[in-house]
Specification:
elongated, 2 domains, Rossmann fold, homodimer, 3-stranded mixed sheet, 6-stranded parallel sheet, about 55% helix, 6-phosphogluconate dehydrogenase C-terminal fold, alpha/beta
Chain lengths: ~290, ~290
């Protein structure tokens, strides 16, 4: 009888549990959360079969563990699981938005567990908690796996199969590239959207709300994301975010200088390149979705 | 028998025609487009009742005219309508994204026509053409009217009633405030999204596409917008866009400096303010939608 333990029964943990339930990959799904109310809510919503009252006991019988907790709590939990199940570890997956800091913390506390498959589903939401969980959250979304030299190929294969079963498309890369690319595609856009929302209410006493069309609503959706979580993500991926900011900032300056100096032909050409890049991204996304 | 003439049968013109048809405000809707194929397409899609072969003739019998053409062509058309129907003008509405430049061009060519009601529906799309037209395009979206001192109150009232009948919520302000606020809520986000898309394919040979989640897709949707149209909008609203860029840029620098210097508590507080602003905007939008 195969058992899944989900540690952290929020949006991502609850969604993974629901997706696994839908495809019947596990006979039993336990949920554990340091916030017992959250675990109970996940149980009531039918996301898990039982609330694990004791973490060690649940770990002892699990075949697979999803660690879906804030990035700064991941390494300690993975270490604890490895210690509890020394020589007989379940396959352990995480969902941390930053990989370098998690892996460094884990290495600093001992050997890299061979059954740990670091991962990151690019499928969050500005919403949080099990109330927002959705069996389809990962469908057609990238899940980035960053296996380590020590990672057991069989564990990697199992993790890959489970993630694929959620409908996600699995991408494998190394941790530094992951961290740079998510700095670019996720962390920097959050920073930009936050900075935008902190300015948008200033002119004319907040009149902007009267002028907000669908473009602005989509552009700033991610600014609704949780401050504590994003403080953590941004600070754990600080160097990569700052590097991507520099690159984007140079691009921004180029646009603004052309506009400022009335070089409208060149501005239009640059807008054309940007539009083409956007259309390529959508096309590639849709091709991947199919 | 009341007749509407839509000049420019693209996304906005076609959508307005469809919305008017749905609420039965006009007995007949003519469409005119300098691109005859576009007018014929609107006819085939049932957006208009007839293609006007001759602009002057169509203007001669119209009770209302919607001028839905690029911003740099609006003033000349409004002037032409006023000349054709001297002393007996239909109510004329435009949909230009910038108001100051349109009104200045109009004033430079003669008196401000009393039956012209300048307007701007905040309901575009990155898509273009009558194929994308939708009777519900304006539903729950702001339409900004910027009446002039010369504007006939009865013409303003008619324009207000028609726009309201599309499902839009009408906001009245003056042209300078309109231009500043759309620079903030629409033009600057386009510039930022364009600059982002021009950078995003650089690192690691365009690997970003593999890492693009829903956040990035929403954040950059507006970067698919038409280059020729946006060159025009940005250049016609140059000063306001640059001023808003400076404001947002100062906010951005503040976020980046806190991140760079490891002031994570203050960073989290600033993220918290931004999140609150975003939640207020959504709440206000939803309240307005109701």
């Amino acid at each position: 009888m195969s058992r899944l333990l989900v540690i952290g029964t929020g949006l991502v943990g609850g969604s993974f549990a629901l997706a696994m339930r839908q495809v019947g990959r596990f006979a039993h799904i336990d949920g554990y959360d340091s916030d017992t109310a959250s675990a109970n809510a996940a149980l009531q919503r039918g996301q898990i079969d039982a609330v694990a009252p004791d973490l060690e006991a649940a770990v002892a019988t699990a075949d697979a563990v999803l660690v879906a907790v804030p990035t700064n709590a991941i390494a300690a939990l993975v270490r604890r699981i490895a210690m509890t199940r020394r020589g007989n570890s379940p396959t352990v997956m995480d969902v941390g938005s930053v990989k370098g800091s998690v892996l460094a913390a884990l290495r600093s506390s001992g050997a890299m567990p061979a059954t740990f498959v670091p991962g990151h589903p690019m499928a969050g939401s500005e919403k949080r908690g099990s109330a927002a969980a959705d069996a389809g959250l990962f469908r057609d979304r990238p899940v980035i796996l960053t296996p380590q030299p020590e990672t057991d190929p069989a564990a990697l294969e199992r993790a890959r199969e489970w993630w694929t079963a959620t409908g996600a498309r699995v991408v494998e890369t190394n941790a530094p590239i992951h961290d740079e690319m998510v700095a670019l595609t996720s962390h920097l856009p959050h920073l930009v959207a936050y900075a935008f929302m902190n300015w948008v209410e200033q002119p004319h006493g907040g009149a902007a709300a009267d002028f907000a069309g669908p473009g602005l609503h989509d552009f700033t959706r991610i600014a609704a994301s949780d401050p504590a979580m994003w403080r953590l993500i941004l600070s754990e991926n600080r160097a990569a975010v700052l590097a991507q900011y520099d690159g984007w900032s140079a691009s921004m300056t180029r646009f603004v200088d052309l506009l400022r100096n009335g070089h409208d032909d060149e501005l239009e050409a640059l807008i054309g390149s940007a539009q083409a890049a956007r259309l390529r991204m959508v096309e590639r996304g849709e091709a991947n979705d199919g």
